[in-house]
């Protein structure tokens, strides 16, 4: 039985997880980030926080089904904040978060 801190083993290639980890990547454009904001809403019931940094509005969540990690980031318009997720590959979510930087709007042009 896997350690509960590690989560369940990832499904095999024939068993895609409903979180869609294998089908998504780091957003390259604002359109990608907007799509991932919608995806965040669709899968939030599958995600549990693992490491959070409220000072930078960043976090790492783990899928309760497959155990894979998702970064949570945000874009602010000055009027509202838009939260989105994207898959990350890490064995150490806290170290990943410590080294991570929020994606910048110019990165998402």
Explain what you see.
This protein has a four-stranded antiparallel β-sheet. Residues 1-5 have low confidence and may be disordered. It contains two helices and four strands, in the order αββββα. The protein has helices spanning 30-43, 93-99, and strands spanning 47-53, 58-63, 69-76, 81-88. It has a domain at 26-90. It is 19% helix and 27% strand. The protein is α+β, with helices and mostly antiparallel strands and 109 residues long. The radius of gyration is 14 Å and the shape is globular. The longest helix is centred in the middle third of the chain and has 14 residues, at 30-43.
Radius of gyration based on Cα positions: 14 Å
Structural class of the helix and strand makeup? Answer: alpha+beta
How many beta strands in the DSSP annotation?
Answer: 4
Strand order of the largest sheet: 1-2-3-4
Number of helices: 2
Unreliable stretches (pLDDT < 50, length at least 5) are 1-5
Instruction: Outline the biggest β-sheet.
Output: 4 strands, antiparallel
Order of helices and strands: HEEEEH
Q: What percentage of amino acids are in beta strands?
A: 25-35%
Give the averaged pLDDT, no decimals: 87
Global geometry: globular
> What level of helicity do the residues show?
10-25%
Region (Disordered): 1-23
């Amino acid at each position: 039985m896997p350690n509960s801190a590690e989560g369940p083993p990832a499904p095999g290639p024939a068993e895609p997880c409903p979180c869609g980890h294998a089908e998504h990547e780091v957003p390259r454009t604002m359109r990608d980030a907007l799509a991932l904001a919608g995806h965040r809403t669709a899968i939030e019931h599958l995600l549990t926080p693992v490491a959070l940094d409220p000072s930078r509005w960043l976090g790492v969540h783990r899928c309760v089904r497959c155990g894979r990690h998702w970064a949570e980031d945000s874009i602010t318009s000055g009027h509202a904040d838009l939260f989105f997720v994207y898959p990350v590959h890490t064995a150490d979510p806290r170290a990943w978060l410590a080294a991570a930087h929020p994606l910048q709007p110019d990165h998402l042009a």
